[in-house]
Amino acid sequence: MPHGHCQVCLGYYTISEFQILPCGHGGCSSCLDQIFDLVTQEGACWMCRQEFHRSRAHRIYIEVVDSKVAVLQGTIEGLEKMDAKVPVISVERASQRLKKTAQEIECDNEKAKSLQQAIEDFDERIVPVFKDVRAQAKELKQLRDELSRAKSRAQAFDEIRESSERKDLLINALRSELDQSKKDGQQVLSMMENLTTEHLSLKRQNELDMQDKKKKEDDNWKLRGTLERQAKDARSRKVKIQALKEEISNLRKRNESLEESQSVALDESLPVFMSDDYGDNSQNFLPSSSSAQVAPSPGRVRKKYRSFGLSQITNELHLANVDLDFDSGMPGPGFSSDWKMSGTVTKKKAAPTNFPIPLDKHGRPTVSVQTGPVRSRRVP
C-alpha cells in the first residue's frame, strides 16, 4: 500500500492515516490533533497559516493503483489510439515499451508467454505495415512535393504567359506611340522649318530695322549737332548783336556829343563868318524878282547849319572863298550846283543774296534744315 510523508513530524504513514486540510496541505492524524485547540477546535495550517475548523479536516478516500499496472494500461491505451497517421517511430517506441513492461510484470508464465507472443506478432505484422505506410507516406510526400513544384512551375508559366501578353500589349501601345511620335516629329520638323524661315525673315527685318534705326540715330545726332551749332551761332550772333547795339548806342551818344560841341563852336564862329562874307549889306542881299525865295536870316541859317552836321559845315567853310554872283539871277537850265551835302547819312539797301534757307527777322530758319555731310564724326 502506498505511504505518505508528514511534513510536521517528517514520518512516513499509510494513506489511511493521513488527513487533508481545506488549503490542500495534509499531515498525519496525531500531528493534527496536537495542532487544534481543545476548546475551540480551531487551528492554523503550518504551511500557509490559513485558519480552519477541526471538522474541515478529512481523510483521503482514493484507490491507489500499482505503477506497473498503470504503465501497462497507458501503453495499451496508446496502442488502441494508433492509426495510419501515427509515425513509425511512435510504433517502434510502443513495441519497446511493451517489451519493457512484459519484463517488469511478475505473473505466471502462460500470461507472460502470451504477452510475449502478442508483442512478437505486433512486431511482425504491425511494424512492417507502418514501415510500408511510412515509405508510402514518404513517396506521397515526394509526389506532393513534385506536384507542388509542378504547380509552382505552371503558375510561373502562367505568370510568364500573362507577362508576355502584357508585354505584347505594351509593345503594341509603344508602337502606336512611336508612330504617333514620328508623326508629331514630322510636324515639329515642319514647324521648325517654318519657324526657322520666319526667324530668318524676322532677323533680316530686324537687321534692316537696326540699320534704319542706326541711320535715324546718326541723322538725329547730326541734327542735334546742327541744332547745337545753330543755337551756339545764334547765341554768338545775339552776343555780337548786343555788342553792336551797345557800340551803336555809344557811337550815337558820342556823335550827339560831337554835334553839340560842333554846334557850339559853329555858333561862336558863325557871326564872324557872316560878317566877312556879307559885310554890313546883309540886309540888302536879296535874290532877283523872278525868284520867290527869301534869303534866310542869320537865325535861320544858324538853325539850318545846326541841323546839317559837321561835315556840311566843313565843306561850306572850304567853299567860303568862292566868288558868288548874286546879281546874275537864277542859273539856266542844265546848271549843276557845286554845293554837295556829303555829310548826309543815307540808309543802305541790303544787297539781294541767294541764301537758300528762309530766315525770319531774328535770323532763325522757318523750315526744316538738314546740314552737314551724310556721315559725321563727333569730336569728344
Describe this structure in words.
The chain contains 6 helices and 7 strands; from the N terminus they run ββββαβββααααα. By secondary structure, the chain is mainly alpha-helical. Among the domains are: 3-59, Zinc/RING finger domain, C3HC4 (zinc finger) (Herpes Virus-1), CATH 3.30.40; 82-161; 223-278 and 295-315, no CATH class. It has a 3-stranded antiparallel beta sheet with strand order 4-3-7. Strand 3 and strand 4 (26-28) form a beta hairpin. Helix 2 (67-80) packs antiparallel against helix 3 (88-104) and helix 3 (88-104) runs antiparallel to helix 4. Residues 276-314 and 316-322 have low confidence and may be disordered. GO terms for molecular function: zinc ion binding. This is RING-type domain-containing protein.
Q: What is the helix/strand order?
A: EEEEHEEEHHHHH
What separation lies between the terminal Cα atoms? 142 Å
How many strand segments? 7
Radius of gyration: 83 Å
Class derived from helix and strand content: mainly alpha
How helix-rich are the residues, as a percent range?
55-70%
Which sequence of strands runs across the widest sheet? 4-3-7
Shape summary = elongated
Strand content: 5-15%
pLDDT < 50 runs, ≥5 residues: 276-314, 316-322
How much is the average pLDDT?
73
Biggest sheet statistics: 3 strands, antiparallel
How many individual helices? Answer: 6
